Amino acid sequence: MGERARTPVTSLAFYPLGSVESRAAARAMREWQHSTRKGVEYVSCIPSGRDDSRIRFCPWQERRDGMLSRYPYVPHVWVRIPVEGVPSCPDCGAAYEQTKESGGMMGFQPSCMARHDPDNRGRLLKKSE
Ligand SMILES: [Zn+2]
Questions:
Q1: Domain locations in the chain as residue ranges
Q2: pLDDT (tens place) for every residue of the chain, 129 residues total
Q3: Do the Cβ atoms of 38 and 65 come closer than 8 Å?
Q4: Neighbours of ion ligand 1 (CB under 5 A)
Q5: How many A from CA of 116 to the centre of ligand 1?
Q6: How many Å apart are CA 33 and CA 11, to the nearest integer?
Q7: CA of 129 to the centre of ligand 1 (A)
Q8: How far is the CA of 104 from the centre of ligand 1 (A)?
Q9: pTM for the full model?
């Protein structure tokens, strides 16, 4: 059996709360979480009144429990059926995907979220070099 990837999470329990060791362990855990991009993503399609036709990413934020979280915004648009033109992403031109039909309307949402994710952009650029 190979050694499993160890996380500093387990070491926190060994130190008294508030001690130098516990703070160091907490710091190590934070760094580990940043380096491995552990985080929770809450995708929202609630318009904010800003440029709501575009996918938007906010920076990762550290929560009180040390986890990272962010709230990307993905637009959702309704088009009256029969659909005469599929909406597309104003940034990359990719056609939106159908989501659901409701009350004579068809829902559409972009499928190119990963393309616009600032976390992915670096990787994608490296691949194409
Ligand atoms: Zn796009």
A1: 9-37
A2: 444 444 444 444 555 667 777 777 777 766 665 555 567 888 887 777 778 889 998 888 888 888 888 889 999 999 999 999 999 999 999 999 999 999 999 999 999 999 998 887 655 544 443
A3: no
A4: 89, 91-92, 94, 112
A5: 6
A6: 14
A7: 21
A8: 26
A9: 0.61
